[in-house]
Amino acid sequence: MYTPSFFQADRAASLAFAGAQGFGTVCAWDGSKPVASPLPFCVEYADDGSPRIAFHVARGNALATLADGKSRWLIAVTGSHTYVSPHWYASPDQVPTWLYQVVHLTGAVRLMSSQELEGHLETLSKNFESGLAPKPPWMLNEVSAGRREMLMKAITGFVMAVDEIEGSFKLNQHKSDADHVAITTAIGSQTHSGAQELARTMRGMRPHAFVNEASDIHASATLEGKTL
C-alpha cells in the first residue's frame, strides 16, 4: 500500500483500528484471478503475542477452498472517508483530496478445526453484541444443537497469521494548524456520518489548534446574550 511517511500509522494503532472496525475485504488469488469477499472478523493473539485474524465464509464462497496454510492473503479494512474541497482550506492554491483511514493485514491463511470454529463464532458474536448494551447479548447456545451443527457444517473457518501490517491514516497531518482547523470544521458540518467521525478524530489530533475556536464561540455567545 502506498503510504507517505506522514500518513503511516504504527503497528499498535493499525491493529486497534482493525479490531474496532471488525469488518474488511478478504482477498486471495485462485491461480488465475483475484477473489475477494467482505467479511466480519476478530483480532486474536497467539501465545507468542503475534496477531491473528479469525473469520469464516459460506462453503459456497470461492474463498472456501483456497487456504493451504502457505498462500498469503490480504484483508483490507477501511474506515470513514470523505472528500475535501479546495475552497475549505485557509491557505490558497489547494487541490481536491480525500481523507480516510485504512489498514491492510497480510499473512498465510489456514483452515480452522471444528472446535476452533465454534469458539470463533462465540467470540465474534460476543464482540458485536457487546456494542448493543444494555440489550442482553445473544448467545450461540440459544440455537438448538441440531440447527447449530447443521449451520456450522455450511461454513468454513480460517485463521490468518498476520506477518505484515500497513496502516494509512490520511488526516491532514502535513497541513498547518490553520488548514487543519478549517478542514476539520468544514467536514464536521457535512451531513454524512463518515465525515463527522473523521472530524472528531482530527479534533483529537490537535486539540491545541481549536482553543481559539472555542474562545471565539464563547465570546460570540456572550455578546449575543448581552445583545438580547
Sequence-ordered SSE layout with sheet pairings:
Elements lengths: L7 E2 L1 H11 L1 E7 L4 E7 L1 E4 L5 E8 L13 E13 L12 E15 L2 H16 L15 H9 L1 E16 L6 H12 L4 H13 L5 H17 L1
Antiparallel strand pairs: 1-8, 2-3, 2-6, 4-5, 5-8, 6-7, 7-8
Mean pLDDT score, rounded? 92
Strand content: 25-35%
Q: CATH H level of the largest domain: which superfamily?
A: Electron Transport, Fmn-binding Protein, Chain A
Count of DSSP helices?
A: 6
The structural domain count equals 2
The oligomeric state is single chain
Q: Structural class, judged by helices and strands?
A: alpha+beta
Q: How many beta strands in the DSSP annotation?
A: 8
**C-alpha termini separation:** 56 Å
Described by the principal axes of the CA atoms, the overall outline is: elongated
- The CATH class name of the largest domain reads Mainly Beta
Helix-residue proportion: 25-40%
- As for the CATH topology of the largest domain, it is Pnp Oxidase, Chain A
Q: Which residues sit in consecutive blocks of at least 5 with pLDDT less than 50?
A: 217-224
From the alpha carbons, calculate the radius of gyration and give it in angstroms.
Answer: 22 Å
Largest sheet, described in full?
8 strands, antiparallel
**Could you say what the CATH architecture of the largest domain is?**
Roll
- SSE pattern: EHEEEEEEHHEHHH
